[in-house]
Task: inverse folding
């Protein structure tokens, strides 16, 4: 009697396991279905936002106008860890970081959220006045957790008050002159 009960439980267990998992197509080939709702990044090809920057020099400083437009077709929720919505990093020709906006400016430390509607633009302007004349690379991006919208562009500074130069020390005339 106990043998029959064990066999029935085992048979019920095997039959109940049939049909779960992968599906077959009639030729005993396994057809694997992926649910794109569980992993939305697999089906996303198009960009949600379009970032752009415009660079111009005036009054011995460089002005960076950064715009991000929502082109997703619907609203996007953005969360910012501080009051700073956008940031930039300037690199020299060797790839060394020269300056970063967030390291020089104070901002609130409150988490803020915003709804970024379809076709809405976020605009930020930065004025950089202390770069030497020369060639740089600038990276501008959103500080939102959901979207960075990064733009990297070459930056040529020609009208700065600062110039980098080098010289040769040949000697000292007296204790306070070189």
Result:
């Amino acid at each position: 009697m106990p043998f029959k009960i064990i066999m029935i439980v085992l048979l019920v267990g095997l039959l109940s396991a049939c049909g779960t998992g992968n599906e077959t197509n009639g030729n005993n080939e396994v057809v694997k279905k992926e649910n794109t709702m569980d992993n939305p990044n697999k089906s996303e090809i198009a960009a949600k936002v379009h970032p752009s920057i415009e660079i111009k020099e005036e009054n011995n400083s460089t002005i960076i106008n950064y715009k991000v437009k929502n082109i997703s077709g619907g609203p996007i929720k953005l969360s910012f860890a501080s009051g700073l919505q956008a940031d930039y990093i300037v690199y020299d020709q060797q790839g060394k970081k020269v300056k970063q906006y967030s390291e020089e400016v104070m901002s609130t430390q409150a988490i803020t959220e915003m709804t970024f509607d379809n076709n809405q633009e976020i605009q930020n302007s930065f004025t950089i006045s202390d770069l030497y004349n020369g060639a740089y690379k600038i990276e501008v991006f959103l500080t939102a957790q959901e979207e960075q919208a990064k733009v990297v562009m070459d930056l040529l500074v020609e009208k700065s008050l600062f110039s980098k130069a080098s010289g040769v020390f040949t000697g000292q005339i007296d204790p306070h002159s070189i």
